[in-house]
From TrEMBL:
One of its GO terms (biological process) is protein N-linked glycosylation. GO terms for molecular function: alpha-1,6-mannosyltransferase activity. This is Anp1-domain-containing protein. Residues 735-744 have a biased composition (Basic and acidic residues). Pfam families: adh_short (PF00106), Anp1 (PF03452). It is a single-pass type II membrane protein. The lineage of its organism: Eukaryota, Fungi, Dikarya, Ascomycota, Pezizomycotina.
Length: 792
């Protein structure tokens, strides 16, 4: 599963002090860019050193091509060859050209074969010719203002001492001194600065012409790296006074940087700035500006090179530079055809001769046939096929600050029926803060019945093609190998005591297969990580690496439901040895395997998990004899020394516990962090599931009972009203009835008193009135009785 390359970056002067550092910086920052390094001598030790440094970074697409900037024919051939490779899609389109090659001289030089001062041709005319010849390769890329091609020219402070007319007035045609005559340091500085000034001005003029023509989006920058420490070919041939001044400046570097950060630096400092500027995303507004960089400080190019504001003079300069190499023409086509015909005839003659020799002398077949190969048609410089590689393992020992030193980590993860865990695992991968380009992933899929392999492939493809350039990882290896594991993946089967010995021996085989197939000479660390880790710090690699131990593990717990206590130690395989366990081991058979955390083997060992304090120091260390396999960080030299995961009984243990004892036996440090905790996924057992079902049933019954009680209360409230409230209503009704009767009685007694005189006068007629009152009184008693009954 390959990741497509984003573009081709051409770096001239790759064997120089700055060019080599720029190549390494781009290889670190842009893992998916094809590096095309241009050097005059591709067999030099400097080129070999650059290639070895890039290989230590990780798998990168890099090649070295020979090109001599002091020869127009060499430059044109290289440019034509590159354009043809881009057209045939052999390499990605060219998106970056860094003109880092430079030449300086303190003597009067003989002119080149093209008739120019070698300093002027190498520093100015040849880079300009190379840029113009590569326009077709630039155009094949993304020619938009957001992502157009870039040309970065390396300038210098000596440009302020140069002039645009220097080589017209002091050129080799007018020189009266013989070649080899020393010149002053001031004159050499003016010569070098003038060549750089002419190159920068001509490049900016070319950009303006291309913008007006609208042919291609080409952005041109000039970068002044400042003074740099270290020996280079620019100072090797300098006079003694210049070398002494350079050494003095290098010795005063810390003091000079207080006043100016570009005063003097190591070559890696400007190289990182160049790598950053070369791939920064451009906006339409910034794209229209002409920029000049002094280290990482950005300026308007016209403020540093005032001649850029003189448009007529810039046009004249562009025409002048174009005329200087327009007279150069590659070899004529008839000459090439004649050479090709001669070459074909020679090849035919050689082929017939070899055939006759093979037929006549059969004994020569063994020696002649291997010679008939592509080596007869191509030179070593063209092919660059490496069959011998050299690795210095002393540089990959593993240190406490590996992320700063560019140390590579191999992350190994065995998988079996893990499709349900992969989304969580890949979310952890995306959040790791260790540089992803320094991490190589290795997966072993074994004895799986679900879609682990398919889901893994899809998620890896999505991860590697993420829009974030910092997200993709380095080399990724996916290995499929079945081991005949018969133990099921459920909790009861995996953690059952009866299956532990055989299961762990097979797991040890799987780990050894995965490690032996993926460990590279470039790896400094190996990190084992299970896929079912629930939570872990994003900085776990840096946190563990900072202790600088050979083998180190964190504490592993797991969350539990509240009815089980909320949390629990998970990994009991990290422990210190005890006298009880040693005595127990002496009583067991040779092939027996002690498994920790089971009642069948009471070892009474101090476990790392039980020493956890949530508020303890996470950097506190504890020496261990056995380790668990959930999360292990080990230096690669531990495995290179022969330590592995025993798939047999080693000191009555197997797999990771035996790995810890073997590492301890070989003198490596084995450390655990009791207060640095990661959390494993909780997987309920059969008993837990049964209890959870019972709790769910009880909850449903309790809810139904509460609902029935609420319904009964509502019905009672509806059918039976409140007695106190009804009594108040009846009492008020009775009182109203009594008050009404009293009013009627008062009215009746008032009428009788007015009729009494008449009864006295009439005599006998008064008696009926008395009887009527008596009758009225009886009626009142009956009415009172009714009212009392109503009250009751």
């Amino acid at each position: 599963m390959g990741t497509p390359l984003h573009g081709t970056a051409i770096i001239t002067g790759a064997s120089g002090l700055l060019g080599s550092e720029v190549a390494v910086s781009i290889a670190k920052a842009q893992p998916f860019v094809h590096l095309l390094l241009v050097a005059r001598d591709i067999r030099s030790d400097t080129v070999k050193d650059v290639l070895s440094r890039i290989r230590l970074i990780g798998p990168r697409s890099v090649e070295v091509v020979k090109c001599d900037l002091a020869c127009f024919n060499s430059v044109a051939s290289f440019a034509q060859y590159t354009v043809e490779r881009v057209r045939s899609k052999e390499i990605p389109p060219v998106t970056l050209l860094i003109n880092s090659a430079a030449s300086s001289s303190y003597v009067t030089d003989q002119v080149t074969r093209d008739g120019y001062d070698p300093v002027y041709q190498t520093n100015c005319i040849a880079p300009f010719l190379l840029t113009v010849s590569l326009l077709e390769a630039f155009r094949a890329g993304d020619g938009t203002p957001n992502g157009g091609a870039r040309v970065i020219n390396i300038g210098c402070a000596a440009m302020s001492k140069g002039s645009l007319d220097y080589f017209d007035e002091q050129g080799p045609d007018n020189a009266s001194q013989a070649p080899g005559t020393p010149i002053s340091a001031k004159e050499a500085t003016a010569r070098f600065g003038s060549s750089k000034l002419l190159m920068s001005a001509a490049m900016y003029a070319l950009r303006r012409s291309l913008v007006l023509a609208g042919n291609i989006s080409l952005n041109v920058y000039t970068m002044d790296p400042g003074f740099m420490t270290g020996e280079s070919h620019l100072t090797a041939s300098a006079p003694l006074s210049v070398r002494m001044a350079h050494q003095t400046r290098s010795g005063l570097r810390p003091l000079l940087r207080v006043f100016s950060k570009s005063a003097i630096n190591k070559a890696s400092v400007p190289a990182k700035v160049i790598a950053k500027v070369a791939f920064q995303r451009e906006t339409v507004e910034n794209w229209g500006r002409e920029r000049y960089y002094i280290l990482d400080s950005e300026y308007e190019a016209g403020s540093v090179i005032p001649v850029l504001r003189d448009l007529p003079r810039m046009d004249a300069l562009l025409q002048k530079v174009m005329r200087q190499f327009s007279s150069f023409q590659p070899r004529a086509q008839p000459a090439l055809r004649r050479r090709r015909q001669l070459f074909q005839r020679l090849c035919l003659l050689c082929g017939v001769s070899l055939l006759l020799l093979v037929l006549i002398f059969p004994s020569l077949r063994a020696s002649l046939l291997p010679v008939v190969s592509l080596g007869l048609l191509h030179t070593y410089e063209d092919l660059q096929i490496e069959t011998i590689r050299y690795y210095d393992l002393s540089k990959v020992q593993g240190t406490a600050s590996g992320w700063e030193r560019g140390e590579r980590v191999l992350m190994c993860t065995p998988l079996r029926d893990a499709s349900s865990h992969l989304p969580m695992f890949f979310s952890h991968l995306r959040n790791l803060t260790y540089p992803h380009n320094l991490i190589d992933l290795a997966f072993l899929v074994s004895d799986s019945e679900d879609d682990t392999m398919g889901m893994l492939s899809r998620m890896l493809d999505e991860l590697q093609h993420d829009a974030d350039p910092k997200m993709p990882y380095g080399e990724i290896s996916v290995i499929q190998k079945d081991f005949g594991q018969l133990v099921n993946q459920d909790v009861e089967s995996r953690h059952g005591f009866a299956a532990q010995a055989s299961r762990r021996k097979l797991m040890a085989q799987a780990r050894n297969w995965l490690l032996s197939a993926t460990l590279r000479p470039t790896h400094s660390w190996v990190y084992w990580r299970d896929a079912d880790v629930l939570t872990a710090p994003q900085t776990i690699l840096e946190d563990l690496m900072r202790h600088d131990k050979d083998v180190i593990v964190p504490n592993v717990w797991r969350p539990l439901p509240d009815w089980l206590g909320g949390e629990q130690p998970y990994d009991l395989n990290s422990w210190q040895e005890s006298e009880t366990a040693l005595a127990l081991a002496d009583t067991l058979d040779e092939d027996a395997v002690i498994v920790e955390g089971y009642a069948e083997y009471a070892t009474w060992r101090p476990h790392l998990a039980y020493l956890r304090d949530p508020y303890g120091d996470p950097d506190m260390e504890m020496e261990l004899d056995g380790v668990g396999g959930v999360s292990i960080l080990a230096k690669a030299r531990v495995f290179r020394s022969g330590v592995h995961f025993p798939a047999f009984s080693f000191e009555k243990h197997a797999e990771t516990e035996a790995f810890g004892k073997m590492a301890k036996r070989m003198g490596f440090s084995v450390i655990g962090l009791p207060h640095y905790t990661i959390w494993h996924l909780y997987e309920p057992s059969v008993d837990d599931l049964r209890h959870m079902e019972e709790m769910e049933q009880e909850r449903k019954e309790r809810e139904m009972e509460e609902k029935d009680q609420a319904d009964r209360a509502e019905r009672v409230q509806t059918l039976f009203k409140d007695a106190k409230t009804q009594w108040d209503i009846d009492h008020a009704f009775v009182e109203d009835a009594i008050a009404e009767d009293q009013k009627q009685e008062t009215a009746a007694s008032g009428g009788s008193s007015s009729e009494t005189p008449k009864g006295s006068e009439e005599g006998p007629l008064a008696q009926p009135a008395v009887k009527e009152r008596g009758g009225t009184g009886q009626s009142g008693e009956g009415s009172g009785t009714q009212m009392e009954e109503a009250k009751r």
